[in-house]
Specification:
Strand 8 and strand 9 form a beta hairpin. By secondary structure, the protein is of the alpha+beta class. The strands form 4 sheets. Strands 5-6-7 form a 3-stranded antiparallel beta sheet. A two-stranded antiparallel sheet has the order 1-2. The protein folds into 4 domains: 78 residues, no CATH class; 55 residues; 34 residues, no CATH class; 59 residues, no CATH class.
């Protein structure tokens, strides 16, 4: 049978199912959390066992017909600061949380690092990359600021073999010095900068037009522009001296 009692703050009469005996409910009138008296001998059952400390908040079963509505079963809050181990494998408690460093959800079974100051959950790699909590205002987020012009790397990192700056472990090109780390990509870029046979013929036979094209390419950032301009310039200089020599020889005759 239903359990009837009065709110200890506002005095409103409350009626809840006897299955909530020994639990906590929120008064719909003053929103104060009240302890439900245990079910009597005539009740349908004994009080339920208390839930685990991490159990989420959930709505109570609907009260009997004619009874008050709006009661909410109050279970303990999710784990707060210091209630979870520092490092762990994500279980159902923390799986689905948003990592504040990379803004990605934590997958079930992923290695995580729990901040003991604010209770936030980070991917272990994100915490290791930053060395501190990513939540603004958290006491564990204090640390040296990144150098001007740099952005922090999310995930595993490694030093660039050319400039030594930190880059992502899977990066194929350094974002600091612009050098390719993948040999295949480096060869592809170098082969793309070489002039083709048709471009060599164009530079030699159409000097003035080729010079204009080379200047346009350089403005557009095409690496072939400088090479085409040099070939055109050398061709023009050689042609000039050949013309002078032939003119001098013809004048003597």
């Amino acid at each position: 049978m239903p359990i009837e009692f009065k709110c200890g703050k506002c005095g409103k009469g409350l009626k809840v199912p006897d299955t909530l005996g020994g639990r906590k409910v929120r008064c719909p009138s003053c929103t104060t959390v009240q302890n439900v008296p245990p079910a009597g001998p005539t009740g349908a059952g004994a009080p339920l066992e208390p839930r685990a400390a991490w159990a989420p908040r959930m709505a109570a079963p609907a009260p009997p017909a004619g009874g008050p509505s709006g009661l909410t079963l109050e279970l303990d809050r999710p784990p707060g600061p210091g209630q979870l181990p520092v490092t762990m494998v994500a279980n159902k408690v923390v799986a689905g949380r948003m990592c504040p460093a990379c803004a990605q959800k934590v997958a079930l079974g992923a290695p995580v690092h729990n901040c003991q100051a604010c209770g936030s959950t980070h991917h272990e790699a994100c915490w290791a990359d930053r060395g501190r909590c990513a939540v603004e205002g958290c006491s564990a987020s204090a640390g040296p600021a990144p150098a001007p012009g740099r952005t922090e790397i999310s995930g595993p990192s490694k030093p660039c073999i050319y400039c030594g700056e930190p880059i992502h472990a899977s990066a194929k090109k350094c974002r600091h010095c612009g050098e390719w780390l993948d040999p295949a990509m480096k060869r592809a870029e170098e082969s793309g900068e070489a002039l083709t046979p048709a471009e060599w013929v164009f530079a030699i036979l159409c000097g003035n037009i080729a010079c204009i094209v080379a200047i346009i390419w350089m403005i557009q950032g095409n690496p072939k522009g400088k090479k085409l301009f040099l070939v055109t310039l050398v061709t023009q200089v050689v042609a000039f001296f050949i013309g002078m020599i032939m003119g001098a020889v013809g004048g003597r005759r």
